[in-house]
Amino acid sequence: MATHNVIEFARSEPAFAEEARIAASIVGGIRGGNADAETDLVERYSRGLRYLLKRRIGDEERARDSLQETFCIAIEKLRKIKLESPERLAGYLRGIAIRVALNAGRQRKREAYPIDIDAVAAIPDNAARQFQQVSNSQTLAAVRKLLDSMPVERDRDLLIRMYVYDQDKQEICRALGLDSLHFNRVLFRAKGRFRKIMEESREGAAFVPTKDG
Amino acid sequence: MDRNYIDMHLVADRYLQGTLAEGEKAEFEERLAWDQDLIDDLDLAERLRDGLQESFADDRYTASVDKTRTFARLSDLLAVPRYAAAASFLFAVTLTAGVFLNPLAPDNDIQVIPSTPIDIVPLFASRGASDKTIVFNDKSWTVLLVDVMGNHVAYRVTIRDDESDSDPVWMQDEMLPTYPDSLAIGMPGDLLADGNYVLRVEGVRESATGEKTYEHVQDIPFAASSAQ
After folding, report:
1. Label partner for B126 (CA 20 to 30 A): which of A13, A47, A130, B16?
2. Which of A129, A157, A179 comes nearest B63 by C-beta?
3. For an interface test with A, which of B30, B123, B201, B217 has the most A Cβ atoms less than 10 Å from its Cβ?
4. CA–CA distance, B214 with B218 (Å, rounded to integer)
C-alpha cells in the first residue's frame, strides 16, 4: 500500500505540513472528479505560478496565457494519473509551468491553448497584488521616503550596493566593514520600514484617485 | 526550503538578482508556488529594487560606493537630521547646566559662559577587534551613538576594559532609544584611560511578574585614546 510520506516533506515548519495536507487533498479530489478541487487548485497556485511565469516570459499577457495552459495540462493529467508524491504538487506544477514557458519562448506566434476547463477559464486577467492600489509614482516616493528616513549613510549604501549594483553580501560586508548578522539586520529593518511606508501609501491611495497605475 | 533559510540566506533577493544555484532556485520556486506571504515579500523586494534603481538616477541619492565614507568632520555628521537633533538637545542641556553652574560676574557684565564642548561619535559594529579608535578630549563631554540592533523596549549598556574581567567602567540600564534605532551614551571625556574596551548592548525584557532579563544584542570593541 502506497503511503504518502507527508511527515518527511513537512520537515520542521508547520507551513509545510499545511501545504502537504492541502495539496494531497486537491490531488485526491481532482482524481475523484471533484470540480471544486480543480477550482481550489487554480485559486491556491495562480499567484505564485503567474509570478514565476512572468519572470521567465517577461510579458504579462503571455504569462497569463501560459498560466492557463499550465493549469489545463496539470488538471488533465491529474484527472487520469496517480501522482507519486501528491504533497509535492507545487513542484509538479512548477515543472509543467517551466516547460510551458520554454515552449512559449520558442514559438514566434503562439496559438491560443484550448481552454475547456471552467476553473481555468475563470483565472482573472490581473493577479491580485498586495499593493495594487499603489501607483508607480507612489512607490517611487515610498522608496525615497525610506532613504530619507535612514540616518546612517552606510545603511543607505548597503541598499544601493545590493539593489542597484547587485553586489553580493560578502562583497558589501567587506566594503562597509559589517558582519553578516549586522548586514541581515539592516536589510530586515529597511524592508520592514519600506513595507510600513507602502501600507500607508496604500491606505492613502484607497481614498485618492491616481493618475497612473 | 523553509522561511528561516530563505531569510537568513537572502534567497529572495538573490532570486531577484538571478544568482541562485539551480537547486536552490527550484526549491525556492516550489515554495513560491503556494506561499502567499513569500509572494508578497518578493513583490515588495522587487518594488524596492525597481524604485532604488530609478531613484539612483537622482543625484541626491548618489552614494559613494567606491569608498567607505566616514563622518570625517562633525559638520558631516550634523548634516544628518537625527544626529543634528541629538547634538542640539545635548548642547541645550549642557548650556543650561553651564548657566546654573557659572554665575554672572559681580559687576553684572554679561559674560560669555563657556559651555562644555560635546564630541559626538557614531559607533558602528564592524569587523576587526579594536578597529575603531575614539579620541577622548578630557575637556569635552563625549556622546557615543550606537545603532540599536534588536527590537527591545529598553537596553542596558556597559563598557568594560577589554583586557580584564573587572567590573564595568560605565553602565546604564533602562536606556531608551533617544531617536529611532539609536542609543546616545554620554560620558565625561576623561572617564576612559587609554586602552581597549568593549561596549556591550543588551536588550531588556520584563516578564509578567516584573522580573528583568537581559539578552545580548551586540558587542562593539573600540580603543580609547586621550587627545593631547
Report:
1. B16
2. A157
3. B30
4. 12
